[in-house]
Design a protein that fits this description.
The complex is a heterodimer. Chain A is mainly α. In chain A, 69% of the residues lie in helices and 0% in strands. Chain B is of the alpha+beta class. In chain B, the strands form 2 sheets. In chain B, strands 1-2-5-4 form a 4-stranded antiparallel beta sheet, covered by helices on one side. In chain B, strands 3, 6, 7 and 8 form a 4-stranded antiparallel beta sheet that branches. The longest helix of chain B has 22 residues, at 64-85. Mean pLDDT of chain B is 58; it is low at 1-102 and 192-201. The chains are: A mainly alpha, B alpha+beta.
Chain lengths: 221, 201
Amino acid sequence: MSSALSRIIRKTLILSALAAVSLSAQHPDSPPLADVVNAKYSRADAQAIVGVLSEAQAQRLPMLLLTAKVREGLAMNADGARVLATVRSYAKALGDARDALGATANPTELEAAAGALRMGLPAAALKRMRAARPSRSLSAPLVVAVDLVQRGVPVDSVSAGLVSLLGAGAGDSEFLTLQSQFAHAMMNGQQALPAYRSLLAAPRGMNQSVVHPPDMLPDRP
Amino acid sequence: MSEYEQHNPDERLAAELRELYAAPRAPVGAVDRVLDAVRGDRGASSRDSRHWLSAGLRRVSVVVLAAAAGLVLFAGGIVTDRLMRHDSPGASSGMVAAVSEPDSARDITFVFAAPNAHDVALVGDFNGWNRHGAKLVRNVAGDWQIHVRVPTGLHMYAFVVDGSIWVATPLAPRGADDDYGVASSTILVGAGARPAAAPRS
């Protein structure tokens, strides 16, 4: 077989595989992911990215999240190796998140949990959070956890504090308010850990004195 | 708070959100830190962008408005179900989500304050990170604004200023990853915490 023919076959296989894995996750306003990946990256990188996506699809991970991660890399002109590493890491985190939260976790929870894992929260912390809030979504608390870690609160302090809040029955509004007050504290130049501890130590209710929407999110199945 | 807002629970809630998130102003130092970080992240920015940074960014006094918008979107996502029940057209401030299609998407207004910018785009996972697809336009207050239909769920977003400078909102929840060297913000829209009635995969 000539090298040219071999190249054509390989290219066709890559395009077919990418089209297959991204067909159901295609953003309506975006060009086909397969076209873009194949045009921008080397054959080796494209094949490897396809491999990760295919494996994720076989594991029934949320494909839209993974293809969005590829598109993010494309939009930011990341090279193929970086996109590959990112997608691979993200797929692993999504799988770990599902293992920690259980098979009934919805994609939003998985996305938030994967982010938390990638920020260093241990899977055991996710399990404790799930145990503390077994019947309602953890999306909002996990988003807040990620923000806290991003702003400098040690992972252990974040997981312990949030598990404690969940155990006390805190609703999403309290987590949102905690995030807001903490972000303001950071903008005002306070140190992360003391500010976080101070907010946690405030009596419940103090952290929700301004905004207190009722907890309207429906229960998980 | 107006009399109407006092007697309308949804408007009262929206007003409370506006008071919480629209009021703050970042200390000058804090804004500078954000802008310095942007400058550092985008060292390879275009010449125009560097000019914008050096000459214009220090005069940006209300960048925090964008953060406020992000936070309201985050919280607004949680409360949109309540707004939805009354077919609210959205908050008068233009910063809280309006609702039209329960369980699938929300119409959200993104507001970004950058008076010296020439061009601002919204990018996020909800539009394929396409910097050419969602251009903001100036509103009557001089801020940059755009209405976008965002699927329910958790989303990452950022603003792209003058075609090359990616900016996350300082007060909004930060995204978990900056895999590609750029920070992003997070919004949890509407029924983002719903069970898997409408899986995104």
